[in-house]
Amino acid sequence: MPRFIAIYYQKSGCDHTIGCGVKVDRFAASKLDAAVLNVAEALAKTGDDAEFSDEEVKSIHKVDVYEIAAHVSLGPDVWTFARRAAQEKAAQEKAEAKERAELDRLKRKYEK
User: Fold this and answer.
1) Maximum Cα–Cα distance for the chain, whole Å?
2) Against a cut of 0.90, is the pTM above it?
3) In terms of CB atoms within 10 Å, which of 11, 12, 34, 109 comes out highest?
4) Does residue 80 carry a pLDDT above 70?
5) Residue 106: DSSP 8-state
């Protein structure tokens, strides 16, 4: 069964944290229409089994629904490795630029 993500956005978020004013919900549905209906029903529920309080429903300004075509889970080791590789590449490029500048300087000095 296809998997979906619904992203609920508050009318007014905040600027002090990642994801403030945003809620993400993952679920399965048979197709996109059924996923949209699932979201609408979740927002319409009231009482003890409601997923959202009345106040939360009033604060939601839009919901984006996405079908998940593929999924990859990344842990800290992945982005730590990628960050280190990017830093090493930047250091190498900086060293090469310094060497090229030195080469240009020496060429100008001795090729007269």
Assistant:
1) 88
2) no
3) 34
4) yes
5) H
